[in-house]
Amino acid sequence: MGDNQRERSFGRSHDQMRPVTLTPGVMRNATGSCMAEFGDTRVLCAATIEEGVPVWRRGQRAGWVTAEYAMLPASTGRRTPREQRGRRGRSMEIERLIGRSLRTVVDLRALGELTVTCDCDVIQADGGTRTASVTGAWVALHQALKAWVEADRIHRMPLVGQVAAVSMGEVGGELLLDLDYPEDSRAQVDMNLVGTADGRIIEVQGTGERASFDRTQLDALLDLGQAGIAELVRLQGEVTGFVPR
Length: 245
Description:
- Helix content is about 30%, strand content about 30%.
- It has a single domain, classed as GHMP Kinase, N-terminal domain (Ribosomal Protein S5, domain 2, 2-Layer Sandwich), CATH 3.30.230.
- It is globular.
- The strands form two sheets. Strands 1-2-3-5-4 form a five-stranded mixed β-sheet.
- By secondary structure, the protein is of the alpha+beta class.
């Protein structure tokens, strides 16, 4: 084992997640909410359900799930200016990732002509903000949909599965799970994995930042990521009591 293991935050090994906490119901005015904490990264996720769907989806007898993502100005060591519409490439890419990840596990016809918006606001960033957002947004989404089902505003639970996300990478020649910012900033290979509770893959984002990687390394990174996702969906199940139909 390399020296990286002894240097990792929270004294963890190469295949260990940072401490993860998912706290549902943290916002009084949100139908569903969750504080997702991956080590020192904290993302506040809120789910809002509204009548109607986007214009292009009307008449299809199906709903829509979308997301918005932002980093608050003081979420990083140096103040990050608030993003303006039209100049938010990274945030737009991340919110699209969150939205399509969540839609994978929602029966949009069972949802009916409703729109669910999951807002993910990073209040403290230390690496893995997009993966924490996907994981926490699912918890907020579950809480919101459950509330509408219990209020008989939706006839049956449209959520059919779980989705979570985690980062992996090669740092100093070692393959690591769930990178914090110091690791991510010096990674030779940087990767994010989005997957479901039954082991299926929704999205893989992988880049050779400072080096290329081969198929053996890719497979090993995916194995690390899927083990992390299994841990995350277990935690989601614990805090929500969700049982897929």
